[in-house]
Amino acid sequence: MQPAKQAFSGSERMHWLRKFLVATAVTFTLGSTNVLAADIVKIGVLTDMAGVTADITGRGSVEAARMAVEDFGGKVLGKPVEVVFADHQHKPDVGSAIAAKWFSNDGVNIIVDVPNSAVALAVQRIAREQNRILIVSGAGTTALTQEQCSPNGIHWTYDTYGLAHGTAAAVVGDGGKSWFVLGADYAFGRQLGQDVSDVVKARGGSVLGSVWHPLDAHDFSSFLVTAQGSNAQVVALANAGGDTINAIKQAAEFGLAQSGQRVAAMILMVNDVKSLGLPAAQGIYLTTAFYHDTDEASRAWSRRFFQRTGAQASMLQAGVYGSVMHYLKAVQAAGQDDAPAVLAKIHELPINDFMTSNGRVREDGHVLRDMYLARVKTPAESKDPWDLFSIVRKIPSEDVVWPLSESRCPLVKH
After folding, report:
1. In which residue ranges of the chain is pLDDT below 70?
2. Residues 120 and 141 sit within 8 Å (Cβ to Cβ)
3. How far apart are CA 230 and CA 18, in angstroms?
4. Are 160 and 214 in contact (CB under 8 A)?
5. Cα 321 vs. chain centroid, distance in angstroms?
6. pLDDT score, position 136
7. Crossing angle of helices 58-72 and 315-334, rounded to 10°
8. Which residue of 18, 68, 104, 349 has the lowest C-beta tally within 10 Å?
9. What one-character DSSP code corresponds to residue 184?
10. CA dist., res. 410 & res. 414, Å (int)
11. Element of type H or E holding 367
12. 178-184 and 153-155: which strand pairing?
């Protein structure tokens, strides 16, 4: 069976990108003449517009940020709020250059989203140097709030520790004792693979080996042959976006399930499953901070998002909305848009929206919120094209974040 058509085709996405890059270029040009932009609050969405994670961030992240600004009223402290965006191309040097220009020349107050852990770590350094604010929704490395934590950085939606402790713990508990890790060879994939291994071993399982592929890989045959040859009960995919989709498709073609192996996707978005189709993805466990059909609040927001984009939001895109809304509330509460005062309010204010109930920002910059263990539905269970997940249970926030006593963040006092 052919996988379901993605919400945005490659040509549609590129048309949308070309259209808005022109507008963004104009914004950059005008912004350079007004460095501090004291009469405006600018939010920069640094994202992936055409790469491996474009469907789960990209255009949807930009629209989520715009929705938050509109819902807040379009102004804060009497100043209009503007959203600009750029594509970091998954390159730390490109992301750093954009961030430096936004902060130094274009009057951007805050950067949000930033899928790709290496880019996020590079941008967090720029934000600290220039005393601006970074709220990461798209990247997952724990280094953002561990060794490389920053007083200017907030890790908003998820991290590799939470995904591993949610999903790997559930699969081990369901009998998957021997594991093989197939991961992406960059900061996020390596960290996620390590976190999975730690969880499996701590629960009495074993990790029989690992193999690492480049970002945006297309041919997983050699990696899957190695995984099959390990005879592990579970093959953990420590990658994201298009890499996860390609790996799951090819795992089905290689007959991993028929040979008795289970595939466990350590990060899997509703958009990925829509692209894959339920026959290929059914039964996979995952951990998520958001699902569009959890309750009435999530359904109401998701209907609006769908009307604007033609797709349901990933947890990363929903997280962008929440991070922008929380930032604007913090600016309002601080009575100014100066970064130190706003950061104090970001930490002080509770987080309450359609995806988070009584969340808070910890001293290391990590957002504490409950998450969900979910399972991909079978075709027979699904009632409509986006009815893709069953929520197995809620995971309390304390189960998906390390205790402060184990923190390696210099900002945490032990």
Report:
1. 1-38
2. yes
3. 45
4. no
5. 12
6. 98
7. 30
8. 18
9. E
10. 10
11. strand 367-368
12. unpaired
Angstrom distance (rounded) from CA 286 to CA 14: 30
| Spatial distance between the Cα atoms of 184 and 212, rounded to a whole number of angstroms | 5
Q: Where are the alpha helices (DSSP H) in 154-240?
A: 160-163, 169-173, 187-202, 221-229
Each residue of 72-102: pLDDT tens digit?
A: 999 999 999 999 999 999 999 999 999 999 9
**317's tokens:** 């895109």
Q: How many Å apart are CA 414 and CA 406, to the nearest integer?
A: 9
Quote the radius of gyration of the chain (alpha carbons, Å). Answer: 20
CA 414, CA 409: separation in Å to the nearest integer?
Answer: 10
Cα–Cα distance for residue pair 292/270, rounded to 1 Å: 9
d(C-alpha 314, C-alpha 392), whole Å: 18
CA distance 346 to 333: 9
Measured from the Cβ of residue 93, the count of other Cβ atoms closer than 10 Å reads 11
Q: pLDDT digit string (tens) for 153-180? A: 999 999 999 999 999 998 998 899 999 9
Q: Indicate the pTM of the whole model.
A: 0.87
- Cα separation of 313 and 299, whole Å? 11
Largest CA distance in the chain: 63
Q: Tell me the C-alpha to C-alpha distance, in Å, between residue 234 and each of 61, 173, 188, 191, 206.
A: 32, 12, 20, 18, 10
CA–CA–CA angle 92, 264, 64 (5° rounding)? 50
pLDDT, position 31: 36
Name residue 241's amino acid. G
Query: In terms of Cα–Cα distance, which of 201, 195, 259, 264 is closest to 236?
Result: 264
Q: What is the distance, to the nearest Å, from the Cα of residue 80 to the centroid of all Cα atoms in its chain?
A: 27
Determine the length of the chain. Answer: 414
Look at residue 202 and give its three-state secondary structure. Answer: helix
Strand pairing class (389-395; 371-376) = antiparallel
Cβ neighbours of 345 (radius 10 Å): 18
Give the relative orientation of helices 296-309 and 58-72 as an angle to the nearest 10 degrees: 120
Sheet holding 133-136, edge to edge: 75-76, 79-87, 41-47, 108-113, 133-136, 153-155
What is the edge-to-edge ordering of all strands in the sheet holding 262-265? Answer: 206-213, 178-184, 234-238, 262-265
Closest CA to 211 of 221, 220, 196, 223: 223
> How many angstroms separate the CA atoms of 67 and 146, rounded?
31
